[in-house]
Amino acid sequence: METTLYIRMDILKKIQCAAQLKNISCSKMIAILLRQVMGSIQNPWPVGILVRYQQRRKPEEWYTLHVQLMEDDYEFVQDMRRLLKLSISLMLAIAVKKYLTKLIKGKVIDNYPFLKNYFVGKEAIDNIMYWRFTWCYPANAT
After folding, report:
1. What backbone phi and psi angles, to 5 degrees, belong to 66?
2. For residue 100, is it within any domain?
3. Residue 46 within any structural domain of the chain
4. For a surface tag, which of 11, 48, 114, 132 has the fewest beta carbons within 10 Å of its beta carbon?
C-alpha cells in the first residue's frame, strides 16, 4: 500500500544512507524502523489528547515522501498512530533517533514481514464489546 510521510530532510538523508548500507529500499528501512517502536510502547492509552505531530520548521526543511508498505505494516502503523497518539512521521523521527544506529550496526535485517500473524478480533463479554489487535503470535503459541 502506498502512503505519504511528511519528513524532515535531515531524517530522510539518514534513512537513505542506512537503506543504502543495508542494500534495501527506503520503504523497507522505514517499515523496519517503525516496527522497532512497537517494542518500546510503555503506556499506549493516553486518554483525551489529540494526535501529536512534529514541531514546525521552515518549509524548505521538509520533504513529502511516498512509501510503499505491505498491507500488514500499513495496518500496524495505523494502529500505532491511534494507540500512541503520534503521527506516523513523528513516530519515524523518534525511531530514527532511537534505533537507526543500532540497525546499521546490526548484522541482520529481516527479509520477511514481522507482522505475518496480524489479527483483529471482536468479542462480547457481559454485553461489553472488546476489540483485540494482535500484532504477532509468540513463537511458542499453539
Report:
1. -95, 125
2. yes
3. yes
4. 48
pLDDT at site 117: 62
| Domain span including residue 89 | 2-109
Cell of residue 118, nine digits? 496480524
The span from the CA of 29 to the CA of 86, in Å, is: 19
Contacts of 5 (CB under 8 A, 6+ apart): 30, 64, 65, 67, 88, 89, 92
| Residue 18: Cβ within 10 Å count | 21
Beta strand residue intervals within the chain, DSSP E: 2-8, 62-68, 119-125, 128-134
CB 53 within 8 A of CB 90: yes
User: What digits encode the pLDDT tens for the residues 36-66?
Assistant: 887 776 766 667 788 889 899 998 999 999 9
Asked whether residue 124 is assigned to any structural domain, the reply reads no
Residue-wise pLDDT tens digits, 96-114 = 999 999 888 885 455 444 4
